[in-house]
Hints:
The protein is of the alpha+beta class. The chain has helices spanning 8-23, 27-31, 64-75, and strands spanning 34-43, 58-63, 87-98, 106-118, 121-136, 139-149. A 6-stranded mixed beta sheet has the order 2-1-6-5-4-3. The chain is globular.
Amino acid sequence: MAKPIIGREQVEDFLYAEADLLDSWQLKEWLALFTDDCRYLVPSAGLPEDATPQTSLFYVADDHILLEERVKRLYKRNAHAEMPHSKTRHFISNVRIHASEGGDGLAVSCSFIVHRNRRGETHMFVGRSNYQLVLDGEKLMIREKLCRLDTDDLFKQGRISILL
Length: 164
């Protein structure tokens, strides 16, 4: 049986749906977009493109278990960094589908801006996300999401307590 052909329109719809889940704080539903062997990565500012969590400091380097714990913590009332929850808007652009290594997935990149407002302060996180998407039956799932911030530091934003 031939694999379904996934085009940019389907990928964009998937990324927009992911952004909507994050903006509406439907984090359990967002977590369900990830495979059991997933990785969610946010390298620290200034790292080279080939840096890995094994050799360099990452702001976030979660597998599925750690990502699930992160989501649980963000829902807790004692998660002071996000209680009350930030109001966010995820903007996605420049979606590109690249040749995938290994053949069982889809390499995708996009630019992002995440606008966050919390307690009267507004911050923007700008960067590029690289995804490894896979098909599970007829639906796309995230095997890896790497969000590389276009910033020298996080001084103005404080810390990353939201999901990019």
